[in-house]
Amino acid sequence: xxxxxxxxxxxxxxxxxxxxxxxxxxxxxxxxxxxxxxxxxxxxxxxxxxxxxxxxxxxxxxxxxxxxxxxxxxxxxxxxxxxxxxxxxxxxxxxxxxxxxxxxxxxxxxxxxxxxxxxxxxxxxxxxxxxxxxxxxxxxxxxxxxxxxxxxxxxxxxxxxxxxxxxxxxxxxxxxxxxxxxxxxxxxxxxxxxxxxxxxxxxxxxxxxxxxxxxxxxxxxxxxxxxxxxxxxxxxxxxxxxxxxxxxxxxxxxxxxxxxxxxxxxxxxxxxxxxxxxxxxxxxxxxxxxxxxxxxxxxxxxxxxxxxxxxxxxxxxxxxxxxxxxxxxxxxxxxxxxxxxxxxxxxxxxxxxxxxxxxxxxxxxxxxxxxxxxxxxxxxxxxxxxxxxxxxxxxxxxxxxxxxxxxxxxxxxxxxxxxxxxxxxxxxxxxxxxxxxxxxxxxxxxxxxxxxxxxxxxxxxxxxxxxxxxxxxxxxxxxxxxxxxxxxxxxxxxxxxxxxxxxxxxxxxxxxxxxxxxxxxxxxxxxxxxxxxxxxxxxxxxxxxxxxxxxxxxxxxxxxxxxxxxxxxxxxxxxxxxxxxxxxxxxxxxxxxxxxxxxxxxxxxxxxxxxxxxxxxxxxxxxxxxxxxxxxxxxxxxxxxxxxxxxxxxxxxxxxxxxxxxxxxxxxxxxxxxxxxxxxxxxxxxxxxxxxxxxxxxxxxxxxxxx
Length: 707
Prior knowledge:
Blueprint: E1 2-4, H1 8-16, E2 26-34, E3 42-52, E4 55-59, E5 61-65, E6 70-81, E7 84-94, E8 99-109, E9 114-123, E10 128-137, E11 146-156, E12 161-171, E13 174-185, E14 193-194, E15 198-201, E16 207-210, E17 213-218, E18 221-230, E19 234-244, E20 248-257, E21 267-277, E22 282-291, H2 296-300, H3 304-307, E23 311-321, E24 325-336, E25 349-360, E26 368-379, E27 385-396, E28 399-401, E29 404-420, E30 431-443, E31 445-449, E32 454-467, H4 487-490, E33 505-518, E34 524-535, E35 556-565, E36 568-576, E37 583-595, E38 598-607, E39 611-621, E40 626-635, E41 640-651, E42 655-665, E43 672-682, E44 686-689, H5 692-699
Antiparallel strand pairs: 1-2, 2-3, 3-4, 3-5, 4-6, 5-6, 6-7, 7-8, 8-9, 9-10, 10-11, 11-12, 12-13, 14-17, 15-16, 16-18, 17-18, 18-19, 19-20, 20-21, 21-22, 22-23, 23-24, 24-25, 25-26, 26-27, 27-29, 28-29, 29-30, 30-32, 31-32, 32-33, 33-34, 34-35, 35-36, 36-37, 37-38, 38-39, 39-40, 40-41, ...
C-alpha cells in the first residue's frame, strides 16, 4: 500500500480517464491513499472534489472501486451543474457512463427556483434526473404551500420539462389533483401533453370546463385540441393547427358544437390565416373566417368586442414589391352575420381587385412622379354590379430646405365604369375625369427653453386643394364612405374615402403642432395639435344618403398629450363645429401609474348621436399580497352599464389566486350575461380554473399579470 497526498490525485485521475478526453475527470483531495497494480484502488479524504466539464461533485470522503468503474462519495455530498444543485447523504458516481445516483437527496433546479427531495435521485451526463418517492415545489425552503408528490419523476433540465407518475398535487396540505401521469414545464419549452384545464361559469351557457391537449408535432408544427363542456349547451370541440416553414406560416382553426341545447342546432366556426414569402419578391396572404349562424359570437365568443362583430372577412391577396412600384391582386368577400343589415347595405365582393402604385422621385428638374391605379369588379346579389377603373397619375415638385418645405402638385384622375343591373335611365359606361391641383407647405421651428433643459418645436402646415365640380350623380357607390374627421383626414385631397366620389372644392387646410421635449433624453413631455379646413367655394358632390351640407369650414380638430406629473399621463382629443354646431366627438383619458404593479385609468368618450361613455379601470395593491382589480364601463347616453368586473388577486412567494366577477352586455340586442372566474396559479407549475388574467389584460390598460 502506498500513500500519497496533494498532487498524487493527478496521477490517480490518469488511471480513471485518458488525458485529453472531453469527459476527463479532475480530482482534488486533501489526502489520497492509493494502491498500484492491475486494479488500483484508492480512498480519498479530508475534502474531495470531482470536476468534469461544467459538472462538479464534492464530499468529505470518496472511495474508488475499479471493479464497478465507480466512485462512492460519503459525508456532506454535494453536486452542481448549470441547472441543478443536489445535497445528499451518499452518492455513487459511475465515471464510465457519467451516471450519478444519490441516496436521501435534496435538490434545486436553477431555471425556476424549483426544489424537492427524493429517497433516490439519479442524474446522467445528458442532464436528465430520475427521482423515486419524490416531493417537488417552487416554494421557498420554509414553505410548502403547494407540493407535488409522486412515486417517480423524470426531469429533463435541458429541455425544461418533467414527467411524473402516480401524482398527487397538494395545496395548503389538501389534495386537489390526482393523476396517474402528469407532464409539467420547468421553462417555456413546448411539450406534447395536456394543458391546464379551465373551469368556471359561462353565464347563459351554464358552467364551463375546457381541457386542452397540446401536440408538439415538430419544431415548426403544432396543434391544440380543446374539448369545452358548456353544461347548458353541450360539448364543443376546438382544434387549432399552426405551421412555420422558411417561406410559409399560418394557422387553421375549427370549433364545432353539435346540437346546441339552447340554440337548437349545431354551431361551427372556421378560421384560416396564411402567409407566404416567395424568393422572387411575391407575397401571398389568406384570411378566412366563417361561422354557422349570426349569434355564434354572442353565445360563444366570450367578449364584448366579439359579440359586436357584424362582418367576417374572407380574402386572398398576392402582392409584389419593388423599389419604386408595387402590385396587388386580391379577391375578397364578407360574411354578414348581423341579420339587421339588409341586402342593399351589405358590402360588395371584389372579384378581383388589382392595384398598381408607383413613386419615382428625383427625376428631371427635381420632379417626383406618382401613380395610383385600381381595377376592381364589384359583385353582389342585389343592386348594381360591374367593373371600375380608377387611375390617378401625379407630378410633384418638392422643394425642401432646412426648417421648411413647399410641394406643388398636379394630378389627373380618371374613373371609368362598366356596369350591369343598372336603372334604365342610367348609363352602363359612365366616367369621370378631373384635374386636381394642390400646394402643400410647412415649417419646423425649434427653440430651447432657457435654463430648464427643454426643447420646444412649432410645426405649422398649410395645404390648398382645388378640384373642379363634376356631376357624379350617375356613378354608383360600391365602397365609398365619408370617414371620421381626424388630423390626417384634414389634409387629404379627397374628403371621401373610395373612388366613387371625388369632392369639388377650393379647400385650405391649416394646422399647427407644438411639442415640448426633454433636450437630453428626447422624451416627449407635451404634444398639442389643432387644425381646421376652410372651404372657399360651395361643395355640391355628395353621397346618395348624405343630407347635411358641408358648410364653409370643417370642424376644428384638437389633440393633446402631456405628462402631468412623473406618473400621470393625459390624452385628449376633441372635434367641434363653429356657431351652434357644438361638439361632434370627444375623447379623454387619464392614466396614473406610479409603479409597475399599480395603475388607474379614467376615460370618457362622446360621439354626437351615437354614444357617450365613461370608463374606469384599475389594478391597485391593498396590502403587500392583495390587489384589487376592476373595470366599470357605463353608457351615459343609454343610462346603463355596458361592462363591469371586480376582482381580487392574492400573491405569495410561490402561488397566486384571482377571483373575478363579471357582468356585461353579450348580444347586439342588449342581453346581459354574468360569470365568475377563479384562477389558482402555482408558480413554475401551472394554473387551475378560468383564464381570468386574459380578461384583466384586455379590460385594464397597463395591467401586468405578476402572478
